[in-house]
Specification:
This protein is an alpha+beta fold. About 45% of the residues lie in helices and about 10% in strands. Belongs to the ArsC family.
């Protein structure tokens, strides 16, 4: 099983999530939105699974700087287009565990959801 963490290299939350994975001996691939972008079909898949409202980072400066017209009448189609155009609007990190995605970083959720077999024995 390959675990992939999606996000932006210099994001503080990403640094915490990657440190947690490293500290727990979890092997993972890192997908940086800034350098690699994100496929629209991947965003749609995530949206179908967790909801576009969960994926959209409304607290970030990129979203806050949007013109009011872009923020009004948000629906899935509009939100996915915004996130595809500006991936920093995707809540970080998105941890792809294969059969499941975890959006955001909470150590207790990672401890519960990251399979023990993905962790090296201490």
């Amino acid at each position: 099983m390959t675990i992939t963490i999606y996000g932006i290299k210099n994001c503080d939350t990403m640094k915490k999530a990657r440190a947690w994975l490293d500290d727990h001996g979890v092997a993972y691939d890192f997908h940086d939105y800034k350098t690699a972008g994100i496929a629209k079909d991947k965003l749609k898949q995530w949206s179908d699974e967790v909801g576009w409202e969960t994926l959209l980072n409304r607290a970030g400066t990129t979203f806050k700087k949007l013109p009011d017209a872009d923020k009004e009448g948000l629906n899935e189609r509009k939100a996915l287009a915004l996130m595809a155009e500006q991936p920093s609007m995707i809540k970080r990190p998105v941890l792809d565990l294969g059969p499941k995605r975890i959006v955001g970083f909470k150590p207790d959720i990672y401890a519960k959801e990251v399979p023990a077999k993905a962790r090296k024995k201490g």
